[in-house]
Design brief:
The chain is an alpha/beta fold and 208 residues long. It is built from four helices and 13 strands.
């Protein structure tokens, strides 16, 4: 047993503190928007030029002109604002975003992140990933613990092209929560996952 995607996103949403400005990366991280505590004042930022995003629209309520950076339809809020992509990246590069939640293909024990391409496969482009890992105050990676072929995604050293070096602070997978701090420290283990199973499915040494 392990956490499903909804449970992973709910756990990630707990990392959003009151007053935070947060950028959600393409893929599973965008789903975190559906689990934000309504008692907290959280502002979501999208690098295509929007500040203040609501949850995903209900079927039939989509506005094709209102999208996030991953080209998914989203909802606005009364306080939402719109601006150019240049202004959006100025916010990111200026250190005004508290937390970025990104997907990944590999994370090393030092916090190196590889999340933008697999050599030999078609790539749409870098997107805003390099700016996000360099400019935000904290980077959280939300990903499956292992690739589809079963290979570990938390590794000693990334062998895929890097997005950033020593940039990841926290990892949430379907097997648990891990902090990068002079190694990979286990903060939580998912329901019904054993310590032995966690060790076997991770390449690098885990600190308990």
């Amino acid at each position: 047993m392990s956490w499903n995607r909804a449970e992973m996103c709910k756990r990630a949403a707990l990392e959003l503190k009151d007053g935070f400005y947060v950028n959600l990366g393409i893929g599973m991280p965008t789903l975190v928007a559906n689990y934000i505590d309504k008692q907290k004042n959280i502002t979501l930022q999208s690098e295509n030029g929007m500040l203040g995003m609501g949850p995903f629209p209900k079927p039939g309520m989509q506005d094709p002109d209102l999208i996030n950076a991953g080209k998914q339809t989203i909802t606005s809020l009364p306080e939402s604002s719109y601006f150019s992509s240049a202004d959006s990246f100025a916010m990111i590069r200026g250190g005004h975003i508290d937390l970025s939640i990104l997907g990944a293909m590999q994370v090393s024990k030092q916090g190196d992140l590889a999340n933008w391409m697999i050599p030999g496969k078609m790539v749409k482009g870098m997107g805003g990933a390099m700016d996000l890992v360099a400019g935000v105050k904290k980077v959280l990676v939300l990903m499956d613990h292992n690739a589809k072929d079963g290979s570990p995604k938390i590794v000693n050293n990334c062998d895929l092209p890097l997005t950033g070096k020593k940039v990841v602070d926290l990892i949430i997978t379907n097997l648990g929560v891990f902090e990068i701090n002079q190694g990979v420290k286990v903060k939580e283990i998912a329901d019904n996952v054993t310590k032995e199973s966690l060790i076997n499915k991770t390449e690098t040494e885990l600190l308990f």
